[in-house]
């Protein structure tokens, strides 16, 4: 009896492996055959519902089939996130599921390519889908197709993420600063998604030193660029490439601190005194931090 159990377990495992290999290779015909063999011999196998979902995905519309609108793309995204991802990890395992899912994200992004941006269905836009696929250059290209993308919080956030991931944090600083001023409430989620240790450590010190909690102060992140220049003066140059957003107090504070650093290096004492007074009146806590290092 013990030998029979071992035999059955091994046979079931072999059928399941055949199925997983076929799905992992995107071979729909082989996957269907393997699923049929598994069901015939082991009808109670718990992985069969997951396999059916994945096989259906292999037989879905090809990448060249353009989606009709962003709402449809959004529903396809939800299905991929909520159902296919779990099924792939269940049947293929996390390691093998990752590249399989990337191919699904790329295919979905290609089908959504060219659809116009709509705020209410933004998660179905090609830029968002390319980001899910880890295709940073394609995501940036898709954002650039959006008119006035730099003034749209969602699009600016996509571009900031694509730039940081594709070209590195140093290249992404200006866009991060613009997002802080345009839509500070979006910044904590972006910082978490980037998972950049240097940026995470800076954000923690910022929260501690200015007594701001980014997750609970919707406008708190607006002051991050100004604080960064106080904390790390070498960032003044890359951050200075940020375009003007709206002239908020936080943005003006950043410009003041950046100007102060430049004036100090030039030895223009009279102008330094005048700028320091402006910074003190605008943001006393930030001014106090700035003066600690002087």
Kindly summarize this structure in a few lines.
With 294 residues, the chain is an all-alpha fold. 71% of the residues lie in helices and 0% in strands.
Question: What can you see in these coordinates?
Answer:
The protein has 294 residues and is mainly α. Helix content is 71%, strand content 0%. It is built from 16 helices and no strands. Helix 6 (126-132) packs antiparallel against helix 7 and helix 14 (249-266) runs antiparallel to helix 15 (269-282). The longest helix is centred in the first third of the chain and has 23 residues, at 2-24. The N and C termini lie far apart (82 Å). Residues 1-7 have low confidence and may be disordered.
Low-confidence runs: 1-7
Number of strands: 0
Oligomeric assembly:
single chain
If you compute it from the alpha carbons, what radius of gyration comes out, rounded to the nearest whole angstrom? Answer: 26 Å
Helix vs. strand class:
mainly alpha
Biggest β-sheet description: none
Straight-line N-to-C gap: 82 Å
Mean pLDDT: 92
What level of helicity do the residues show? Answer: over 70%
Strand content: under 5%
Number of helices: 16
Shape: elongated
Order of helices and strands: HHHHHHHHHHHHHHHH
């Amino acid at each position: 009896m013990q030998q029979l159990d071992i035999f059955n377990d091994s046979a079931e495992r072999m059928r399941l492996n055949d199925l997983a290999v076929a799905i992992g290779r995107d071979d729909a015909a082989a996957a269907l055959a393997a699923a049929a063999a598994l069901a015939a011999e082991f009808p109670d196998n718990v992985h069969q519902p997951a396999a059916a979902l994945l096989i259906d995905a292999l037989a879905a519309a090809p990448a060249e089939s353009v989606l009709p609108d962003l709402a449809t793309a959004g529903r396809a995204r939800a299905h991929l996130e909520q159902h296919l991802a779990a099924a792939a990890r269940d049947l293929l395992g996390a390691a093998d599921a990752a590249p399989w899912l990337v191919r699904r994200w790329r295919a979905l992004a290609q089908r959504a390519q060219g659809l116009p941006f709509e705020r209410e269905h933004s998660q179905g836009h090609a830029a968002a889908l390319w980001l899910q696929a880890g295709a940073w250059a394609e995501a940036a290209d898709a954002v650039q197709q959006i008119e006035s993308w730099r003034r749209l919080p969602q699009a600016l956030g996509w571009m900031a993420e694509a730039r940081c991931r594709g070209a590195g944090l140093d290249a992404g600083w200006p866009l991060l600063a613009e997002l802080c001023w345009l839509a500070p409430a979006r910044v904590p989620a972006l910082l978490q998604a980037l998972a950049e240790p240097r940026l995470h450590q800076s954000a923690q010190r910022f929260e501690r030193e200015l007594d701001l909690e980014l997750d609970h102060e919707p406008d708190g992140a607006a002051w991050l660029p100004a604080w960064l220049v106080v904390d790390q003066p070498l960032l003044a140059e890359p951050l200075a490439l940020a375009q003007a957003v709206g002239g908020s107090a936080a943005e003006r504070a950043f410009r003041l601190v950046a100007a102060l650093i430049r004036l100090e290096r030039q030895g223009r004492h009279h102008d330094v005194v005048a700028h320091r007074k402006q910074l003190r009146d605008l943001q006393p806590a930030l001014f106090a931090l700035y003066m600690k290092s002087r």
